[in-house]
Amino acid sequence: MSDFSRVLCAIDLTESSRRALDCALWWARRQGTDVSVLHVHQLAVPPPETAGFHGDPTGGTPEAAATAQGPLTPDERRDCQRDVERFVEQARTDGLQIEVLLDEDPSVADAIVARADALAADLIVVGAGTSPISDHPALGRVTSDLLRAAPCSVLVIPAPAADVANPCVAGLARIMCAVKLSDDSRPLLASAASLATEFSAHLTVVHVVELSHVAAVASDFDAHREARVQPARDELVALVADVVGPDRPSEEILSQGNVGQEILKLADEESTSLLVLGHASGHPTPGARRPTGHTVAREARCPVLFLHGDVAAARYPIGFEASRPFFDSQA
After folding, report:
1. What DSSP state is assigned to residue 305?
2. Is residue 166 part of a domain?
3. Which of 117, 149, 247, 257 is the most exposed place for a label (fewest CB within 10 A)?
């Protein structure tokens, strides 16, 4: 995608991050972009006044604190830099120029955000993570924080699985974009359609009608559902016709139920190569349910691209308010 001129890939030297690195390099080769690879050595912080990423970077648990360490000595830093360069070198398949970076910070997420700002990165590529101590256990604390505060788009790569091909090998044959039926969805959909064109991929546009619990137990549930479903179907068809146009291969799917669960189910049924969602930033209020996008990224079997508002607005600026997240519903 021509709007992505610099890719930043965050790695932790695990097999999961190797998959993320493969995807980042594949993306950079396809788009002709510059790529930087960042490894963050997590520093320990003295309790109890920990700050980190809007809070204790270790999550306040002994298990998390055990992963943090002291500052690197010059010799340790040289050895660590060499390890990172070796890790990256194993992923090279051509003459692609790669910048290898090593930072030290109590918060891995803070360090990634700072580097993305400094590099003016357009895309951060990161693994979904598998931290058992996170409030998003299969998503990982770092990735969860990035989805709230990244200054650019984020591509989340699922953990390796024997029955799921890496997109850097399989390519992007089917792209699915989940939209709300509002003006905010237009730039997101336009960007997804552009991606589908660039990758010669089939585009599926999904909208989920989430019926309330009150409606589900009401005696007139069928009438209530039809009153919402048919207008939503008409709006979805009109939105795709207006933004995508008749010349691109695409289809619309209207579903009912829990938004996150329906998106995940449809992505599997459609053999989706890439899910495209809006980038919902900000920290949830205490007691709030996790954002739908976090739920999808945590469980998706394919990469999930959270498209930042600035990128989408550049493709479809009419009627777009950059301060509003595209996909911030709770699930």
Report:
1. E
2. no
3. 247
